[in-house]
Amino acid sequence: MKTYHQKASEIQRDWYVVDATDQVLGRFATQIATLLRGKHKPTYTPSNDGGDFVVVVNCEKIKIMGRKADQKIYYRHTGYPGGLKATPYRMMLAKHPDRILRTAVKGMLPKNRLGRRLLGKLRIYAGPNHPHTAQQPKIWTPRYS
Questions:
Q1: How many CB atoms lie within 10 A of CB 59?
Q2: Is residue 6 situated within a structural domain?
Q3: Is position 104 within any domain?
Q4: Is residue 84 part of a domain?
Q5: Which range of residues forms the domain containing residue 117?
Q6: Confidence of residue 145 (pLDDT cuts 50, 70, 90)
Q7: How does pLDDT run across 58-70, given as a tens digit for each residue?
Q8: Percent over 70 (pLDDT), the chain
Q9: What pLDDT is attached to residue 75?
Q10: Contact 23, 105 (CB under 8 A)
């Protein structure tokens, strides 16, 4: 039996809406990364972008476990000498709740062109509304809860 490799013409992409209310950040991000990669499909090919589009709503209501709300710090660098910036989790949640989930999912995707392309199919919104109703997205619920 030959190894199956998915062709670009065979890819069928779906749109999924996922509600992040009361979901645990890491477990939730793994499920989103699986949808983006297409690992839930029987036609999964590691080197191809065969995944689906994911729209996440209510990302400001996501949870983290333990004392991470007080201890977790997000780092970034401006590119200038001495330009290391540190932002605590609570401040990031107040100002940019979408970046919390995007950072978690980005760390679970490949670190190459494919990973950047996969991350482009992720849409994150802080509130319950999104502008993607024309794509007729399917409602998706996480498998672990």
A1: 25
A2: no
A3: yes
A4: yes
A5: 13-140
A6: low
A7: 999 999 999 999 9
A8: 99
A9: 97
A10: no
> CA-CA distance, 16 to 135, in Å (whole number)?
9
In sign, the C-alpha dihedral spanning 96, 17, 117, 27 is positive
Tell me whether residue 97 is in a domain: yes
pLDDT digits (tens, 9 = 90+) for 105-123: 999 999 999 999 999 999 9
Picking from 136, 137, 145, the residue whose alpha carbon sits closest to that of residue 20 is 145
Q: What is the CATH number of the domain that holds 27?
A: 3.90.1180.10
Amino acid identity of 72?
Answer: K
pLDDT at 8: 84
Question: What are the DSSP E strand ranges found in 2-72?
Answer: 15-19, 53-57
Contacts 24+ apart (CB under 8 A), 127-135: 127/57, 127/58, 127/60, 128/57, 128/58, 129/57, 130/17, 130/55, 130/57, 132/15, 132/17, 132/53, 132/55, 135/15, 135/53
For the chain, how many structural domains are there in total?
1
pTM, rounded to two decimals = 0.92
